[in-house]
Amino acid sequence: MTLLLRLLAIQISLAVLLCGLAATSPASAQTTRPSIAERERFICAERVVLEDGRPAPGHIRQLRWLDPLTGKARDPQGFGVRGPREFLRTSLLDTRGRALLELHAIGDLSRGGRIGLTKSEPGAPTAVFETNEATSVWPSGAISPDGTRIVFFDHHAESLVIGDTTNAHRIPTQWIVTHPFSWRPDSKQVTFYYASGYDGDDLHIQNHGIATLSADGQLRELVRASDTAGTPDGMGKYMGPLWGPSGRFIYYTSGLPLDDPDRNSTAAKMIPGKSAAYRVQVDTGRTERIGLGELASVSPDERYVLLFYSPVPREDGRWGGGTTKVDLETREATYLPAGIAYPKISPSGELVATLALDAIHFFDTKDWKPHGQPIAREPHVSPEEWGREYRWIVIE
Asked: What is the DSSP track for 21-87?
């Protein structure tokens, strides 16, 4: 009996030992990838300031990662300004936060110098696009979400350029493109505002059309510039048209047509330029109006959009201005708190970044209450800079 009990004890000990080994075995170890909310970062390209407080010469900017929880800004590892002729822009950082396209001026640009384009992942610079022809890619150049392609408008050659290290398409055009490109999430197409000429692209009201350009160089006009009533000089224009996450719709801002009954309404008079947000279905070209105000951001699930500046009713019964959330299925409008201005929804949909006079604030989209700590920002950030140089990414 004693021997039997000893053998049973040994079997139990071996069973416990084997279970322990199985629990710690690499083959059975379970690893959970951090959620999108844990990996998303709000980034910006700030002007470089010298020790005496003066801005650095040229167009030098410093790439910064902003932490909504702590209210601190830091330099992303592996990326930085290394020379006076580098032009860092957030539109040249892919959505993974891995590949930054660095532009180096070769020679004097005013005398025919050229621009070299290099993709730099932390510790591993590689060529992403090489050209001996383009001398200007600003202000519209943008790298694709997957970091493999670049698109820009060459002002000197008056042509659209899209390509990678193996193939580049140059499409001559009489259009003028001065506002940001928006890539489709799968990196296969871009959309952008265009003007028929410089007269249609002045500082205030512009007649912009909407077009798409595919990676194989196919150009398509979705909304003709002659059919629009002007693009107001505000948030909507400097964001550029936005490609919806589903890839089915493109969202944009345009002025209300002269025969639109809402144009002379009290609410519309509160909007600079009397504008409205629209979307166009890419497959059919059919457009629909979403609501009064300028387009600011589209939610990741494409269930709602945020409009700013838009008409917001005040307690005294009059109309004021602010941010409106519009449900894309029901068109129900929800008026958000006054502190939410120039909103940018995060990739997880859980946060929204907003611009205030002295800081960048974050809000929780569940209840639209403040989240974390505000981040001090550089002074005099214009709507154009907010649209171009501040954005969300999801790091790997």
From this structure: HHHH-TTT----PPPHHHHEEEEEEEEPB-TTSPBPSTT-EEEEEEETTTTEEEPPTT----STTB-
- CB of 192 closer than 8 Å to CB of 140: yes
Q: State residue 7's pLDDT score.
A: 34
Instruction: Tell me how far the alpha carbon of residue 71 is from its chain's centroid.
Output: 21
Q: Which two tokens stand for residue 10?
A: 């040994």
Beta-strand relationship, 142-143 and 40-47? unpaired
pLDDT of residue 382: 81
For the stretch 68-94, what's the b/e string if a residue is b when 16 or more beta carbons lie within 10 angstroms of its beta carbon? Answer: beebebeebeebebeeebbbbbbbbbb
Residue of 164, 310, 275, 283 lying closest to 220 (CA atoms): 283
Closest CA to 190 of 215, 154, 153, 208: 215
Q: What is the pTM of this model?
A: 0.83
- Classify residue 163 as exposed, middle or buried by CB count within 10 Å of its CB (0-12, 13-18, 19+): buried
Q: In angstroms, rounded to a whole number, what is the distance separating the alpha carbons of residues 10 and 7?
A: 5
* Half-sphere exposure of residue 232: CA atoms within 13 angstroms, side-chain side: 27
Would you state the structure tokens that stand for residue 296, as one six-digit string?
Answer: 């600011």
CB hemisphere CA count around 251 (13 angstroms): 27
Mean pLDDT by 10 residues, the chain (396 residues): 38 32 42 82 80 67 81 71 56 76 52 50 49 55 84 84 82 85 94 77 65 95 83 70 95 87 85 87 95 94 95 89 96 94 95 92 96 85 83 86
- The gap from C-alpha 190 to its chain's centroid, in whole angstroms, comes to 13
